[in-house]
């Protein structure tokens, strides 16, 4: 892979990062060890081999002279995959709780710059998977599963892999495309169909005379679209500091992770009864969970609905994994003041229908598209101002990350759960990410540890709200 400039949105994510607000995505994948092996045995070596074979994971960011303020992806000539893949035994205690706690702490740490911006951690049980008075694999499947049923009678056969990728390297869909290369099924297909890459001639960053007119027309169209989005952003901005206290608290730089598992069949049942999409049901579930959480902690319900940023991928099916971030978003008021679950779902469905009718390239939620209209130097110098702008537009990030539908494994160890994790923008205390796999919806909640110390209560509210919505389904 040759040197290539960072796309404008990638450059924006690279410069938005600060020590208290690392801009990396994450995923906590839970596996069951093959019988007769120690949980995690051979996994670090396997991960290192497969990650090193993904060209994108060998690229680092370096500054360039032109364009001024720009940066480029370049192959790291000193690449050492063992700097990126590490093993961490969990402390004694419940596997689920310890995995969530450690994953939250690891998400606090910004990725090292100057090297390819990604890391993988293999989290193994404290007892090494030794028997504890029984036999057979654990029945629970994810970090949160053992909370309800207690630890398994026999050995805890689970281990976990935490993956971190900088947002400049990957949006949600691209992270899946890149990260899927570690799984047996995708790695086998890639190995069977691997071909020698053709050398790509270096591209000039200066247009030829025949391209200048077309580029000028494109820039004028981009400017016209950017002015429209900019006007929408100004109209949608809220300069009243009042809101949900926990969601608008100052940053402590700490991170906490909580997880939930929803039955996809239940989500589809509600969708069929109420109409709309499965995503509408999940967004309504988030709204109801927030309401329950605020009432339990004594928070007054806000007069203005907390606003969620709902990312929308503009990536076309089949586009290469190495292409740039392709994101827009919708803004959605979460109806937490509405006491009826049916009415909350109707409100979410109506708002999302209006968003979809306008499309992802219009409205204040499309603020990410403004990155394409700004020169690289503006991203470098304006990152602090842009980072602080998130607070006036939205209160919480809610994103869905698609996963492959087929069953996945790592070294023969079946994938039992995968919890996605989204970064916190400056001025934000909570981000919720959802992924469907194996008939379940896995929910990863990431929060500022000081602002939202009771994140597990909010996670439980997801299940409670879906149960409430089920009551409206025949």
Count of separate structural domains: 2
Distance between the termini: 54 Å
Poorly predicted segments? 131-142, 144-154, 194-207
Structural class: alpha+beta
Q: Report strand %.
A: 15-25%
Number of helices: 13
Seen as an oligomer or otherwise, the chain set is single chain
The assigned CATH architecture of the largest domain is: 2-Layer Sandwich
What shape does the CA trace take? globular
Largest sheet: 6 strands, mixed
Query: What is the CATH topology classification name of the largest domain?
Result: Chloramphenicol Acetyltransferase
Please report the total strand number as a whole number: 15
Class of the largest domain, according to the CATH hierarchy? Answer: Alpha Beta
Cross-sheet strand order for the largest sheet: 5-6-7-2-13-12
Give a short summary of the structure:
This protein is α+β, with helices and mostly antiparallel strands. It is built from 13 helices and 15 strands. The strands form 3 sheets. Strands 5-6-7-2-13-12 form a 6-stranded mixed beta sheet, with helices on both faces.
Characterization of the model:
This protein is an alpha+beta fold. The protein has 2 domains: 4-192, Chloramphenicol Acetyltransferase (2-Layer Sandwich), CATH 3.30.559.10; 212-405 and 419-470, 2-Layer Sandwich (Chloramphenicol Acetyltransferase), CATH 3.30.559. It is 35% helix and 21% strand. It contains 13 helices and 15 strands. It has helices at 8-16, 43-52, 95-108, 145-149, 172-179, 184-192, 209-236, 264-274, 278-296, 341-358, 376-388, 390-393, 455-470; strands at residues 4-5, 24-32, 59-63, 71-75, 85-89, 118-124, 158-166, 255-263, 307-313, 327-333, 396-400, 409-410, 413-421, 430-437, 440-448. The strands form 3 sheets. The chain has a 6-stranded mixed β-sheet, with helices on both faces. Strands 8-15-14-11-9-10 form a 6-stranded mixed β-sheet, sandwiched between helices. Strands 1-4-3 form a 3-stranded antiparallel β-sheet, with no helix packed on it. It starts with a strand and ends with a helix.
